[in-house]
């Protein structure tokens, strides 16, 4: 039975409640189908992260529950799905915007360590309105994961393009910075130019505005929505921006 306690976001409208329910029942199958893997292979990766000491430590230090009763970053189709996708793609270069406490950064870095390859580049402008944290940016990232991490402090408007030009090509881009239409579309368009064919672009809070829907409509990509997480795969046959 789905626990709807403390998920007011999902219950603001019947449509969002239906989207949440769909994600609850199908997130593993959806990831498996999207990645072209068997349900068993993807199930193994989710078990790998949910049964790990890593997630237990993150949950304890952040005082966040694991599971569906809250829409925290530890809900299965949020940070754990970032872990699973990173394990599947085995990327060389991952870029994310928005760090705050460091949930997504920690899960991606933990996956890179399990892959024994890859590097994460994170851009964060700390303590924006509505997201003030009292601790250091990325404090949830443990010391043993930081050797694969470059944390860049500043706005994605200033820092993203120079980073992309430096890297030249990336495997995964994850947006979780300011969720305005203008900023999301800016990041989508810029990052898309540098994502390798068959690479992934992911975005959190895609229901905040129409940028995600417009982008997948206007560009040649495969896409899947897991409630507020959007997943796009760049196709080999070219895109238009």
List keywords for this structure.
single chain; 241 residues; alpha/beta; Rossmann fold; 7-stranded mixed beta sheet; 42% helix; 18% strand; disordered N terminus
- Which structural class matches the secondary elements? alpha/beta
The number of helical runs is 8
CATH third-level topology:
Rossmann fold
What general form does the structure show? globular
Strand order within the widest beta sheet: 3-2-1-4-5-7-6
Number of strands: 7
Name of the CATH first level: Alpha Beta
Low-confidence stretches: 1-6
Amino- and carboxy-terminal Cα gap? 42 Å
Helix content: 40-55%
Percent in strands: 15-25%
**Largest sheet descriptor:** 7 strands, mixed
Number of domains: 1
Mean pLDDT rating? 90
- CATH architecture grouping: 3-Layer(aba) Sandwich
Fourth-level CATH superfamily: Vaccinia Virus protein VP39
Q: How large is the radius of gyration?
A: 17 Å
Which H/E pattern describes the elements?
A: HHHHEHEEHEHEHEE
Task: Please provide a brief summary of the model.
The protein has 241 residues and is an alpha/beta fold.
């Amino acid at each position: 039975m789905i626990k709807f306690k403390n998920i007011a976001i999902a219950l603001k409208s019947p449509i969002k409640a239906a989207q949440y329910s769909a994600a609850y029942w199908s997130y593993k199958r959806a990831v498996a189908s999207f990645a072209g893997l068997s349900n068993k292979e993807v199930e193994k990766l989710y078990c790998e992260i949910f049964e790990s000491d890593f997630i237990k430590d993150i949950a304890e230090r952040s005082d966040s529950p694991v599971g569906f009763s809250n829409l925290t970053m530890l809900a299965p189709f949020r940070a754990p799905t970032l872990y699973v996708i990173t394990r599947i793609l085995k990327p060389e270069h991952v870029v994310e915007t928005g760090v705050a406490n460091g949930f997504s950064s920690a899960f991606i870095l933990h996956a890179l360590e399990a892959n024994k390859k890859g590097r994460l580049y994170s851009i964060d402008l700390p303590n924006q309105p509505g997201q003030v944290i009292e601790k250091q940016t990325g404090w949830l990232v443990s010391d043993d994961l930081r050797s694969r991490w470059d944390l860049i402090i500043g706005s994605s408007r200033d820092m993203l393009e120079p980073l992309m030009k430096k890297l030249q090509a990336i495997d995964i881009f994850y947006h979780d910075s300011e969720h305005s239409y203008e900023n999301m579309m800016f990041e989508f368009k810029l990052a898309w130019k540098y994502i390798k064919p068959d690479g992934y672009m992911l975005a959190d809070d895609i229901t905040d505005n129409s940028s995600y829907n417009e982008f997948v409509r206007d560009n040649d990509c495969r896409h899947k929505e897991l409630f507020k997480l959007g997943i796009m795969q760049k196709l080999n046959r070219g895109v238009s921006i």
